[in-house]
Amino acid sequence: MNGSEVDVPLSVRLRFGHAAVQTLANTIGVDLLHIKGVAVDPSLRPGGYAGSDVDVLVRPSQVVALDRVLRRHGWRLYSTFEYGSPFEHAQTYLHDMWGYLDIHRFFPGIRVDPASAFERFWVDHHEVEIAGVGCSVPSVPAQAVLLVLNAARSRAGSRPDVQLAWREATAEVRAEIEALVADLDAPVAFAAATGGLDRYRGQRDYALWRIISQGGSRTSEWWARVRAAPSLGAALRVAARAPLVNVDHLSHRLGRPPSRAEILGEFFRRPARAAREAWQGLRRAGANR
Prior knowledge:
Blueprint: H1 10-28, E1 32-35, E2 54-58, H2 63-72, E3 76-79, H3 81-84, E4 90-95, E5 99-104, H4 114-122, E6 126-130, E7 133-137, H5 140-151, H6 160-167, H7 171-184, H8 187-194, H9 206-214, H10 218-228, H11 232-241, H12 247-254, H13 260-287
Parallel strand pairs: 2-5
Antiparallel strand pairs: 1-2, 3-4, 4-5, 6-7
């Protein structure tokens, strides 16, 4: 570091990142809700955890408008909706000053349509000040629901948010959370984080949440994604994408955009990895008999 440079703590940089995104959203009339990290109510943040990036949930009809204004103001696309996660729910940007930003067009585990889900969160949102800018956040019970649903995507044993947001909640707050989970039609993902997932064995997304929360092969995950799709058309789209190379992930692994030859090589390596995973799964199943 030279004499003209100053290291800015991550928690401070994240606060300014939230403020920067909110300021841009205000200029074009985009509705967004700040979620996770420093935007979360202190009562739900274990040890004041600030997170590692900025996360916002955007009104679905305004995602394109927000994407355009972000790119005009120094936010570079890092990974796309299509390749960012198994749910295709978030797109990631990187800014030289503010770091990473995830814009969510919906939240995994919520089965009502994204527009209705956003409106349910928006109807009782409030503002908090982050780096001097008023930022919209969901109600505290809604924040608790989002934290638990987010925790469902991590392995059991690494879910401190569930402890504070659900297990230590009062009976009154639990009732509010349960009502919101019902409104959002999110019982399967919620149970994946809090317990009792097997009660939902008959649900189309049961297998996916079992794999996401407990582990499983990539091949099993893809089949679960197909079964979890809400319609035949959506299932066919998921199946068609299964053999394709995740170009975003390959770019990050290489540290540069991959060549056509590298993409092609990765395409042919994928079946071999899938066969290896299937064989290892069969061996484990045989050993457990």
